[in-house]
Fold:
Amino acid sequence: MKPLFLITNDDGYYSRGLQHLVSVAGEFGDVVVMAPDRNASGLSTSITTSRPLRVHPVGNGAENHFACDGTPADCVKMGYEHFCPRRPDIVLSGINYGSNASINVIYSGTIGAVLEACLDGFAAIGFSVLSHSPETDFNACTPTIRHILQQALLHPIPAGSALNVNIPRLPANQIKGVKVCRQAQAQWVDSLEKRTDPIGRPYWWMTGKFVCDNPPHDSDQYALNQGYVSVVPIRPDFTDYAAFGSIQYFEK
Amino acid sequence: MKPLFLITNDDGYYSRGLQHLVSVAGEFGDVVVMAPDRNASGLSTSITTSRPLRVHPVGNGAENHFACDGTPADCVKMGYEHFCPRRPDIVLSGINYGSNASINVIYSGTIGAVLEACLDGFAAIGFSVLSHSPETDFNACTPTIRHILQQALLHPIPAGSALNVNIPRLPANQIKGVKVCRQAQAQWVDSLEKRTDPIGRPYWWMTGKFVCDNPPHDSDQYALNQGYVSVVPIRPDFTDYAAFGSIQYFEK
Structure:
């Protein structure tokens, strides 16, 4: 039987990035799409508990493409529990417009979906390209996606782990290769910009400047800066194992 | 100068858990509250990028209590960037109704706020109690919160790390002590319950059963099951360091 891919994203069903990923994954197996029905960027691993969820077939639903009014993580649960004809072999998320390297991963709905899939016991991969432009050339991502899918089908991703793949914004023949990395530390500074509405009341827009000076050579941000694709193995565990010994004073 | 606490939560400003935390923290220093203006549970580390944010003083604002129409992570950024009279010494989140132990941490808006504060360079602590009951006796949490705040003011939390504190639902004198732990692995199964609306269309409610059999003895879930408070050092890094060597086949 062909491999089955469950595919979602956080930019919403109508994103060109999603459609491109669907087309490349379709070379390797069958596809079910369950994607947010609108932009769901920045939703992290949110789940929807305060209202019920609806699912809309795209077209007549015969192609197994669906849009859901929930978050990316909701879409993963919905997709494999209720809309996949068999257990998906790999859950894919993306291609996201914009970097999910370094600490961006923590806000990312694209990666929220990947972490949800990982918690649910699935192999999972998130793809992002370092471009927010509507003219992004997703064809330049195709060789990378083919390589990663081929490898993931040949050598299963270790259980409990998932992949966060970021692709530099370069023509395919200028991408230097693929590097396995760790997540770089960084900061978003000056986050909220204050403005005044027409009747004099304040409001704030989320904005900010990404600061990641001198990222370590084994980090995703460094690899991307050098023109490589970064692959970070991730897992849904926030434990700071290094801090263990130094906080024993909290015990009693 | 007295310590300054910036306090938020995910259950919303009107939660008794928040009000209790404000009152205990007030014994140790000054307090600024910037909390979501409504329930924001399950929002993880979401940030709001698609619309601007508003802030509403509670009462006349003289007590430095504010409600914001954003997520818990938004509230942290808003609080320290625009509403704190000086740099907060510790960012607090909670007291959350319900467990944020084990993998619940990944969905938690309470912990989303803590991770945001950690990324922004602040010491941060999230408090949760293992009860969803509106009659929850938050006074039973007071000795634990006092102990943790005392320790955190005496011996700073290591830079880059934050604390996820879960309190069992027990009278104060039956709580056995405080244990430093790691996050237990677990699963939510059977997540989405299908129903049919009055005109025959399907919808789904997020639900599910938490399964965490035989948690390891050094995990938060085990400590809580034994009647201890669990303290997990956490940090915003998803890298699966253990998987590094075994995924080199993705390189090229």
The helical segments of chain B are 16-25, 72-83, 109-119, 142-154, 220-225.
